[in-house]
Design goal:
By secondary structure, this protein is of the alpha/beta class. It has 18 helices and 27 strands. The strands form 6 sheets. The protein has a 9-stranded mixed β-sheet with strand order 2-1-11-10-12-13-14-15-16, sandwiched between helices.
Length: 529
C-alpha cells in the first residue's frame, strides 16, 4: 500500500462523491483519480527515472492534489516547495534534492531564472504559463498540454483491486498490509544551521500516521475539512490525506488574509472540521464573528503547530461547548502527529498535549540517556511507523535525532500521574512562529550582515497570536547605532515574512556563560517586549 492507494481507496469508497471543492470548482473522486492517472502517465513518458525527485510549487488547488498523487503514483519522490520562500531558497532546495522536474504555478514563475539557474538539476518544467528555458537545457510544457490525453484512463481496475491492498473495513494503523518503508516524499523544514533540512518520509510513515489520525478523529465519508493550511506544510498534508482516504471532502480556501471570508466558506459548504495553528484561532476570535457564527454542521476542531495559550483554548471551548476540540502535537519528522488530547479530557487538562496517537510509543529521556520517572522533565523520544527515514544529505543532523530507531524531538516535557504529557520547553533553538519553524541562527546571520551590528541573539517570546514571536537582542559596535525599523526592513528584504523579528531590543552587552556562549536563558527571563 502506497500513497497513491489512499486516493484509490477514497475513490472506491465514494466514486461519484465530490472530493474537492475550491470556489466554483468541484471535482469528484473518480474524476480526480482519472486526472491523476493522466498526469502520472505523462510523467512516465518523460526521461525521469524511478526514485527521482519531482518538486511541486503550487498553492492549494485541485492541480496540486493531482500533481501530488501523480508524482508518487508514478514512482517518483514528491518534494512540496514552500511557496513563501525566497527564490534563492527554492533554488537551493531543488539543487539539494537534485530534482529532475518542477511543476510550478504561473504566479511563482516571475523569478524562474533565480529558482532555476544554470547549475540547476531540473530538466523538465510543467507550468500554466509558457516558458522558454532552452538555453539552460530545460524542456518546458504547459499544464494543459500535459493533461491532454487521447485515451481517458480506465479507472475501474484501480477501484476493484483496492480491497486487496487497503480493505475498506479493516484498514487500521496496526494492519497496513504491504506498506513499504520506501521514500515517498521530502518535506523541507528550517534546520538548526539555518539551511533547510529535507525530512525523508516513506510511504509507510505517511500512510500509518494518516490512518492513526483517522482513528482518533473518527473521520468518515460524511466529514469535510476546510483547508487554510498550505499542503506543503506537513499539517496541511495530513488534512489532505486523512480526508481523501476516508472518502470525505476537502474544501480549499486560500484567503485567510480575509478571515471573515473563511467563515463564510465554512458556513456555505457546511464543513464538519476546522484545523489551524494558534495564530489562526487568535485571529478568528478577535477579528471575526467566529464565536457567534454557530456552525451547526461543525463536528470537530484541531490545533497543532505550536503551543496555544490556555486562555485562547478556554475561549475556543467557551465558543464551541458542543464541538469536539483536539489539541495535538507533532513534528514533520514524525509524519507529523505524535500526540493528541482526547476532546473529553480537554476541560480538566488544559495545557497538556495528551497521549500518543495509535501506534506511537513515547519515552521521556534524560541527558544521560535514561528514561525519567513520572513528574520529571525529559526529552520526548518517539518510536513507531511514523518516524522519518532521516534527513536528506545531512547525516550529522540525522545522527543527532535518530538513535536506535527512536526520534529525539528536542522538546522537553513531563508526564503526570494520568499519563498525560505537558511540554516544558524546547531544547533546540528552533522557534515555531504561527506554525512555521524558524532557525534563530538564520535570523542572527542575516542581522549580522549589517555593518553596525556587533552581536545579536535571537530568542522567542510568548505571543497570544503567533504562539511564539521572534525577538532580536542587539549590541551595536562602538560609536554606531541602528533602529528597529532598519533591522526589520533589512530582514524583510532577505527572509520570509514569518522570520522577521516582531521585537527588537538594543542593549550594551549580551549575557554570557563562562565559556563565552551567549546565555539565552537569562535573556529570555529578562526579556522585554
Amino acid at each position: 500500500m502506497r500513497l497513491f492507494d489512499l486516493l484509490r481507496r477514497g475513490a472506491a469508497n465514494s466514486p461519484d462523491k465530490i472530493a474537492v471543492t475550491h470556489g466554483d470548482i468541484q471535482i469528484s473522486y473518480s474524476e480526480l483519480l482519472s486526472q491523476a492517472l493522466t498526469l502520472l502517465q505523462h510523467l512516465k513518458n518523460l526521461s525521469i527515472d524511478s526514485g527521482d525527485r519531482v518538486a511541486i510549487m503550487l498553492e492549494n488547488s485541485v492541480d496540486y492534489i493531482i500533481a501530488y498523487f501523480a508524482v508518487t503514483g508514478a514512482g517518483y519522490i514528491v518534494v512540496p516547495l514552500d511557496t513563501s520562500l525566497k527564490p534563492e531558497k527554492c533554488g537551493y532546495i531543488l539543487k539539494d534534492c537534485e530534482a529532475k522536474a518542477l511543476i510550478i504555478q504561473k504566479k511563482y514563475t516571475r523569478h524562474i531564472n533565480i529558482i532555476l539557474d544554470n547549475d540547476s538539476t531540473v530538466k523538465h518544467v510543467i507550468s500554466d504559463r509558457k516558458l522558454d528555458l532552452s538555453e539552460q537545457g530545460i524542456t518546458c510544457e504547459l499544464w494543459d498540454d500535459a493533461m491532454m490525453s487521447d485515451v481517458k484512463p480506465d479507472i475501474s481496475s484501480h477501484l476493484t483491486e483496492i480491497e486487496k491492498i487497503a480493505p475498506m473495513k479493516t484498514l487500521r494503523h496496526d494492519n497496513l498490509g504491504d506498506c513499504p518503508h520506501e521514500l515517498a516524499a521530502i518535506f523541507y523544514t528550517s534546520g538548526s544551521t539555518g539551511s533547510p533540512k529535507g525530512v525523508m518520509l516513506s510511504h509507510r510513515n505517511l500512510v500509518s500516521n494518516t490512518v492513526a489520525t483517522i482513528e482518533y478523529l473518527k473521520l468518515t465519508s460524511d466529514d469535510s475539512i476546510i483547508t487554510i493550511l498550505p499542503f506543503y506544510y506537513i499539517y496541511g498534508n495530513s488534512l489532505l490525506l486523512t480526508h481523501l482516504v476516508s472518502g470525505g471532502r476537502v474544501v480549499i480556501d486560500n484567503r485567510f488574509a480575509f478571515p471573515q471570508v473563511i467563515l463564510e466558506t465554512m458556513a456555505r459548504e457546511k464543513v464538519t472540521g476546522f484545523s489551524g495553528v494558534p495564530s489562526n484561532f487568535m485571529i478568528l476570535l478577535t477579528n471575526t464573528n467566529f464565536i457567534s457564527a454557530g456552525f451547526p454542521k461543525l463536528r470537530y476542531l484541531t490545533q497543532a503547530g505550536g503551543g496555544m495559550a490556555p486562555e485562547i483554548i478556554s475561549r475556543v471551548m467557551g465558543a464551541f461547548p458542543s464541538k469536539e476540540i483536539y489539541i495535538m502535537y507533532g513534528q514533520t519528522e514524525a509524519s507529523p502527529r505524535i500526540t493528541y488530547l482526547p476532546s473529553d479530557m480537554l476541560k480538566k487538562n488544559i495545557g497538556s498535549i495528551g497521549i500518543p496517537v495509535p501506534g506511537v510509543t513515547i519515552k521521556l529521556m534524560s541527558e544521560e540517556g535514561n528514561e525519567v520517572p513520572e513528574g520529571e522533565v525529559g526529552e520526548i523520544a518517539v518510536l513507531g511507523d511514523c518516524v522519518m527515514m532521516g534527513y536528506w544529505n545531512q547525516p550529522d543532523e540525522q545522527e543527532q535525532v535518530l538513535k536506535d530507531g527512536w526520534l529525539y524531538t528536542g522538546d522537553l516535557a513531563k508526564r503526570d500521574a494520568n499519563g498525560l504529557l505537558f511540554i516544558v520547553s524546547r531544547k533546540k533553538e528552533i522557534m515555531k512562529v504561527g506554525g512555521n519553524r524558524v532557525s534563530a541562527k538564520e535570523v542572527e546571520e542575516k542581522i549580522l550582515e549589517l555593518d553596525e551590528i556587533q552581536e545579536v541573539a535571537v530568542i522567542s517570546v510568548p505571543d497570544d497570536i503567533l504562539g511564539e514571536a521572534i525577538k532580536a537582542v542587539i549590541v551595536c559596535k562602538n560609536g554606531q547605532d541602528s533602529d528597529v525599523k532598519k533591522i526589520q526592513n533589512y530582514c524583510k528584504a532577505g527572509l520570509a515574512m514569518h522570520k522577521v523579528p516582531k521585537f527588537v531590543e538594543f542593549i550594551d552587552e549580551l549575557p554570557k556563560y563562562q565559556s563565552g556562549k551567549v546565555n539565552k536563558q537569562e535573556l529570555s527571563r529578562g526579556s522585554k517586549t
